[in-house]
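Chapter review: from sequence to fold.
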Amino acid sequence: MRNKQLERIELGVSTSAFLKAGESGLLVLPERVADALAAVDRATEALQNHVSVDLEAARERYAEQTAEALRKDAPLPSAKAVEQVAGMARQHEEVRRALTTAEMQLFTELRSVIPSADELVTEHVRPVLLSTYDQARKLLERHGPVLGEPADAAITGPPALASAWSTFGQLVSRISGLRDLHHRLTAPSLTKDTTGSFATWTEPPNDDRLWARSPVRLAEKWRPWPSEPRPFTAWLVHSGLTVWVPTAEEQDARHADVFDAPSPNPNALLTAAGF
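The token string follows.
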């Protein structure tokens, strides 16, 4: 039911993603947000369970009875029944309108208690994501890089290794979900690092740890990290890179530090070299 609610209210993609992350257990929603969302749940459920009175059906039945009485030249049926149904229909419609108004009021309250995207990143996504990376790192230190490999490698090992492999997979799934949420929260505000060069680590693209020599052509370099989430996570936590979870402003600032720095003055370089 909640997913349908989130489609109905204008919270934006990033905020809806945050609420769904809380629902799925990726992170814990702030208490005030959880309470407001629960109130919306109850309002929506009450509205969905509200049964309207079918006034049109009552009118059709009365019309059929009236037509039959006229055919037989009999007394017309009492209109009391249809009048009662009409009164009930009006009451039920007023209740429906009141429930709809209450639901919208609660939607407004929910919007008002949701933190800004920056606060969602710094207070909720960042600590959980960095803690999950730390758990993954400790597992790798204990059991080795086999945790980043396909299941066959773990199945042939001791039971403890198979259990660690499974736990590492759960951590990888959580990291992937939180990274996706982080992207949704920051992407709308990014103005410089729109390609995400500094979304995961702070190092510039020319850092040697981000490149390796091609085993085929030694003159060429290629990006060494795997594309699949499990081996990528294993590579990342042991890469020595500075893993971070920046706000959009921090991410753009890092991009500016690397790419917007003024180029060295060639004459100054020659002078410094003694020419």
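Two observations follow directly from the output. The CA atoms of residues 67 and 76 lie 9 Å apart. The first strand starts at residue 212 and ends at 213.
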